Amino acid sequence: QVQLVESGGGLVQAGGSLRLTCVASGSIFRFNSMGWYRQAPGKQRELVAAIRGGDITNYADSVKGRFTISRDSANNTIYLQMIRLKPEDTAVYYCAADRSITYYPHDYWGQGTQVTVSS
Q1: 58 vs 23, 27, 75, 111, CA distance in Å?
Q2: Of 61, 84, 93, 108, which is least packed with CB atoms within 10 Å of its CB?
Q3: Residues facing 3 on adjacent strands
Q4: What are the pLDDT digits (tens) for 55-77?
Q5: pLDDT given at position 16
Q6: CA neighbours within 13 Å on the CB side: how many for 95?
Q7: Predicted pLDDT at 87
Q8: Distance (Å) of CA 27 to CA 3, 4, 100, 107
Q9: For 6-57, what is each residue's pLDDT tens digit?
């Protein structure tokens, strides 16, 4: 059974940094695309960043220059380094994984980790 487990969320002041980690397990297949989504209260879930194929990345405009996604393919693990955090980054952050090469990985989902940025 595939499991995605996120960690690294928490409470941080505006301007601070956090690093999220997602470890995928239980799959005999390599995940060719993995990514991070977020959902703030009252809003739809949105893609934050994804990494696919030969480490090609894509980002939401709102996080470009502040967030960096990276991957340890050997261990089916991805990271999201977040700097210069803003209160509007407050959300539950979800990890997603996909066997296909896609901008929007969505086959499997983690349970989410809360990120709260205080002003």
Answers
A1: 20, 24, 21, 22
A2: 61
A3: 25
A4: 899 999 999 999 999 999 888 89
A5: 98
A6: 29
A7: 97
A8: 8, 10, 14, 12
A9: 999 999 999 999 999 999 998 877 899 999 999 999 999 999 999 998 789 9
Q: What is the Cα 12 distance to its own chain's centre?
A: 17
Nearest to 66 by CA among 45, 36, 40: 36
The torsion angle over the Cα atoms of residues 102, 68, 71 and 114, rounded to 10 degrees, is -90
**What b-and-e string marks burial along 55-79, b requiring 16 or more CB atoms within 10 Å of the CB?**
eeeebeeebeeebbbebeeeebbbb
Confidence at residue 98, expressed as pLDDT on a 0 to 100 scale: 93
- Radius of gyration, alpha carbons of the chain: 13
CB 42 within 8 A of CB 112: no
